[in-house]
């Protein structure tokens, strides 16, 4: 019994096999671009891995861009801070030189002029830009952060405590959050004497006690801190720790400028049986105002949980120039962002007025504090910069690993591809040759 095979069936089978061979060859030719994955059906497992690796690569590239931008921002900031600390070092030296009582009025005027030039340079450095952004302006990076007034104003005069003084008086109502007291407000009496006000509890001390007398208490009574009775009087209700009581903000702006209420302030105390009227001591000087904010700019450097502090790449005015008695946490004012600049302007004003005594004590302490504040900020920024440099190295290594994974899962094996192409081409050519000889004879026999 013979089995008849129709010509249509034979032709269809031949065409299908020929088309399959052609399809295989075409797919192999697609890999000539270097990739063996063009669609999920090529290899579903490898394609799934390829997609995951590609997402990781895109994330890595974004983090690398963030880190690169962050490092550029921090290098610009660091360069400005280095120049600032250098200027402040010179400013300290000039303060020491100005404290020498042998300087005449002409000498002091020359030093004051040099100091003003240095402060103006600090303000200029505070307005350093990266592209079109001010690096020290916080998140208000499009607003010029530091502006010096052209006119002089009446600014309160702070008594900046030396290290030993601060240690002694810090036990007296220190509520500024740091556990220490660094400054007092200077008062002038109608008896011609100077007094100091602890703004944290309203206690008033004589100049002699704050500057020298406290040492006798330490020596004679073997105590390390001030106690009740050392004061000569108290301003009633002056206790920032309690709501509804007087604060520095009631009499001064956050830059230290005396307000109308401050101008009208006076209080009486009894000294040696006599009533003395006290008012706030002031000095006429220019002031610098800060128009940025204290918010950080974050540039995320790796996936995972958000770390706003660790990812912050900028430093702000309050960090560079600290706070003083007029804008610390106990003052009732918000941070000015220019405290140390205004303190340096006070030093400069004292130089101009040839106040050698003030310069020999408070002036040098202020200059030291200004320099120390900026150096601390520079150190913190340097630590963050090193962290980002370490992350940059890590991201570079990760990128190499991810790229290798992508290559392994998606790239064509050229040698293997060449062999497969030759095989498929040979099969295809053989099919064409065989079909050319067999199909016509089969059809003829059938017919």
TrEMBL record:
GO terms for cellular component: bacterial-type flagellum hook. InterPro entries: Flagell_FlgL (IPR013384), Flagellin (IPR001492), Flagellin_N (IPR001029). SUPFAM superfamilies: Phase 1 flagellin (SSF64518). Residues 5-132 form the Flagellin N-terminal domain. Keywords: Cell projection, Cilium, Flagellum. GO terms for molecular function: structural molecule activity. It comes from the Bacteria. One of its GO terms (biological process) is bacterial-type flagellum-dependent cell motility. Signal peptide: none annotated. Pfam families: Flagellin_N. NCBIfam families: flagell_flgL. PANTHER family: FLAGELLAR HOOK-ASSOCIATED PROTEIN 3, FLAGELLIN. This is Flagellar hook-associated protein 3. It comes from Selenomonas ruminis. The lineage of its organism: Bacteria, Bacillati, Bacillota, Negativicutes, Selenomonadales. The gene is flgL.
